[in-house]
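Structure (tokenized):
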């Protein structure tokens, strides 16, 4: 790449910034804003001739859509991601594609297929290690385990996620999601005081309205419902707030450039 080209370097920097902002919106629960940022990042990366950046953002967009879009829209985004990933030629990107598909299959109840994609991702990560993708893959494995009633397997994979988070680079949302998952294991084991203690701690340390705070409140309400504390459960659910859109004053100037 010719870094003397102002157009190329400028578009790449903008693409990376848009992707970072998109991830921030995603972690806050502002999915519409995140989707728009990823779309701009893809466009800028493709204009800059950066297939790796474009592929990462195609995958972010697809993974985000799993949380919010229809099956038809998911099919289109998956096709775009599958076309973009080979152009970058990195094992970690292909592994991330498989972790996304594993997530989708798991949500559809196809647990054996989800596990197969996790296995493929694991093999690819041995060729091109990436701690962030490995965390996602271990999180998928933990979710599959708990859906299959394998509480020991769930705890094992969740502990691996937390160990990887200690190495750095993980988001608050990922850490909280892992801790909430572990709290659900405590609930299923009948260890409600331990589960409630863990969830109370998460609620106190996360920002109201954030995706992390909401996940912790939902987990706490589940624990309270399980022990029959219906009034406490109702009170906890009332604390859940819909995520507020961030105003444009908190976003980058990139949109106007």
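Design, position by position:
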């Amino acid at each position: 790449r010719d870094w003397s080209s102002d157009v190329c370097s400028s578009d790449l920097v903008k693409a990376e910034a848009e992707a970072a902002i998109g991830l921030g919106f995603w972690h806050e629960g502002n999915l519409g804003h995140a989707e728009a940022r990823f779309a701009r990042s893809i466009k800028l990366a493709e204009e800059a001739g950066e297939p790796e950046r474009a592929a990462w953002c195609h995958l972010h967009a697809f993974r985000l859509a799993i949380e919010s879009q229809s099956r038809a829209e998911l099919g289109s985004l998956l096709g775009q991601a599958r076309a973009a990933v080979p152009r970058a030629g990195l094992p970690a990107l292909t592994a991330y594609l498989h972790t996304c598909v594993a997530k989708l299959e798991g949500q559809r109840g196809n647990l054996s297929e989800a596990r197969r994609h996790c296995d493929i991702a694991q093999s690819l990560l041995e060729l091109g290690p990436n701690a962030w993708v490995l965390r996602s893959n271990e999180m998928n494995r933990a979710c599959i385990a708990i859906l299959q009633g394998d509480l020991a397997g769930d705890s094992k994979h969740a502990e691996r996620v937390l160990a990887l988070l200690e190495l750095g680079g993980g988001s608050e949302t990922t850490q909280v999601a892992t801790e909430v998952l572990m709290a659900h294991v405590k609930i299923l084991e009948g260890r409600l005081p331990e589960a409630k203690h863990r969830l109370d701690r998460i609620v106190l340390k996360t920002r109201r309205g954030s995706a992390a705070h909401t996940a912790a409140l939902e987990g706490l309400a589940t624990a309270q419902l399980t022990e029959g504390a219906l009034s406490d459960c109702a009170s906890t659910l009332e604390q859940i707030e819909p995520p507020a859109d961030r105003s444009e004053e908190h976003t980058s100037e990139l949109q106007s450039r």
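Reviewer-requested clarification: Confidence is low (pLDDT under 50) at residues 1-8, 245-257. The longest helix spans residues 6-28.
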